[in-house]
Specification:
Blueprint: H1 3-7, H2 9-33, H3 40-46, H4 52-64, E1 72-73, E2 79-81, E3 87-89, E4 92-96, E5 99-109, H5 115-137, E6 148-156, H6 159-162, H7 183-196, E7 202-208, H8 210-213, H9 227-239
Parallel strand pairs: 5-6, 6-7
Antiparallel strand pairs: 1-4, 2-3, 4-5
Helix pairs in contact: 2-3, 2-4, 4-9, 5-7
Length: 242
């Protein structure tokens, strides 16, 4: 393992955050110039290139840990067999000699609407994990040992994401940690529980505002969900295959 990559992780992370917001701004501008301004925010949410900076970072971590670049797949050949569906595309895969070593999903969310999108993101992440582990149980990945399954999430830091949110409890009380929890807090709890319940090997969660993020600024709401911790777990797993 090249220690320089972990030492340079803060700078790598800042560049990835800046790339996200810069790419998003370009996508919105293109939508407006094409006469589809009402679709601008939708473009900013769905444009796949915004998170490329983080995929670059994860790729560098994997290569520095000793896996050749030819075994790291991104944007092409990223489909894995599922159990409940034929295939699922991941953002990054590490596959060597018919062995699945790692799969990583990277997601983000910007405002102004967080409610429905929060539910969609959580259901998607849980469903993807269930599909992969069930397919793994059924030997869809041949004789691969247990792979690393990683989840990265970046949330826009704004008033709508940090203010307390009411919950509806017409029949039963929600768990106490959700009472008055903002969407930022909900995502933190979600990412932590994904790992606690062993749906994912590791998760990272950061927040960033569009104004400060353009220069690479971001925050880490919880130490156990930091990019540094995620990187150490990922590279440690990779090291077992050398």
């Amino acid at each position: 393992m090249n220690p320089a990559i972990l030492q340079g992780l803060p700078k790598w992370s800042e560049r990835a955050v800046a790339h996200y917001w810069q790419t998003r701004a370009v996508q919105v501008e293109r939508q407006e110039q094409s006469g589809k301004a009402d679709q601008g925010l939708r473009s900013a949410v769905t444009g796949g290139a915004q998170l490329d900076g983080f995929i670059d970072l994860f790729t560098e971590l994997i290569i520095s840990a000793g896996i050749a670049e030819q075994y790291v797949f991104r944007k092409r050949s990223v489909e894995l067999p599922g159990y409940f569906r034929p295939t699922k595309e991941w953002d990054l895969l590490v596959v060597r000699d018919q062995t699945l070593i790692a799969a990583i999903e990277a997601k983000s969310q910007v405002g102004p609407s967080f409610g429905n999108n929060f539910n969609n993101r959580t259901e998607e992440a849980m469903g993807s994990a269930l599909d992969l582990w069930t397919a793994y149980r059924e030997h869809a990945y041949l004789d691969s040992p247990q792979p690393f399954l990683g989840y990265f999430f970046m949330l826009e830091e704004c008033e709508a994401s940090i203010l307390p949110v009411k919950v509806k409890e017409p029949h039963f009380k929600v768990f106490s940690e959700f009472e008055g929890a903002s969407y930022q807090r909900r995502y933190e709890l979600f990412c932590r529980k994904l790992v606690l319940e062993r749906h994912y090997t590791a998760a990272a969660f950061i927040t960033s505002s569009g104004k400060e993020g353009i220069d690479g600024s971001f925050h880490v709401p919880a130490d156990d969900l930091s990019l540094e911790r995620f990187a150490k777990i990922l590279t440690g797993h990779i090291g077992t295959f050398l």
